[in-house]
Predict the 3D structure of the following.
Amino acid sequence: MKDKKKDDRAAVSTFADHEVIVPPNKLKKAVQKIKPGEKIPFDPVERAEAALAELAADFSVWMNQECARLDAARHAVKASGVTAGNRDVLFRAAHDIKGQAATFGYPLVAPVADSLCRLIEHTPEVARLPLRLVDQHVDAVRAIVHKNTRGDVGKYASELAQKLRQVTDEFLLRENRDRPDTLETILGPSLVP
Amino acid sequence: MVRIDFNRLRFLVIDDNAHMRRILRTLLHGFGTREVYEAEDGAAGLEAFTHYSPDIVITDWAMPIFDGLELTQMIRQPGANNNPHVPIIMLTGHSEKKRVIAARDAGVTEFLAKPISAKALYQRVLNVVANPRPFIRTRSYFGPDRRRNANPNYVGPERRKGGKADIIQQQPLLEKAGVTGPGR
């Protein structure tokens, strides 16, 4: 049911309550078919991994910078009281650590940062954010980063993360007991590992 | 089998975290891309999008000013820019079901949860380049087809009405108003 089609224009099919649009494929230029037996000049994934490995020498410095940023955000919240603005800064600092810790070689830090993100995001009222629990999360992140090279850090870090997550979840379930949508989100599984 | 010539693709990376931008730039250069532009928040990202006309946008979600979700909604507004169909890869630490659905409903093409890996990023780029999806426009959505596969065994209600649209010819407003002027 094509109404119009030109090389440089989208093909639009119109239905009762929707349109299906096939835009011109501008990225076709980048697709190269490989013939059977043809040699590929390089494996892009391997080359990207090698390039990333060259950056690895900086990762411990970067991780310490992220920790310092989280620490500063925590102190700002404690110094002037929680506001929507400094809470968001704290959240973004924790969220960045959650997403980057494994890449930087600190996978044990990610669950603690994740727990802190949940605490900040799902505490329904800004003024009710439990600063002592925030402190415990930030201190745990810094301690695990600091002790990352110690052999027994894995066991202690996992136990610490589990305990913080447990206390956080208990707090959030209490705070959100009258908010079924939030409870569903809190209790729902992550879609990715 | 296909391979991607990254040298022919222009990327825009939008992330407020300088370390993550550096990692993305490194991975993309490793794939073979030469043109990687960066922006550090949604507002700067929108400006860079207009200025550089990237082939693919990779954006973070949580950013100051306006976030990656709002940026996606702005890019997907038909008529707002030259390329509302641009592939958008949302790279984020968010991984809850509710978030993934919100990103999909805003018009994100691919969702990639951190921590990032070269393989996962390559796979998302391969998907948007080699297997582009059509776009769907409804009263409440404009973006890539949210149905990645047709399920022949689906038995639930059909949400899209398949019949051809009733097209009602509208008289141009100027004619309707009987406006006349030079050349009319």
Strands of chain A lie at 11-14, 19-22, 31-33. The CA atoms of residues 91 and 117 of chain A lie 6 Å apart. Chain A has seven helices and three strands.
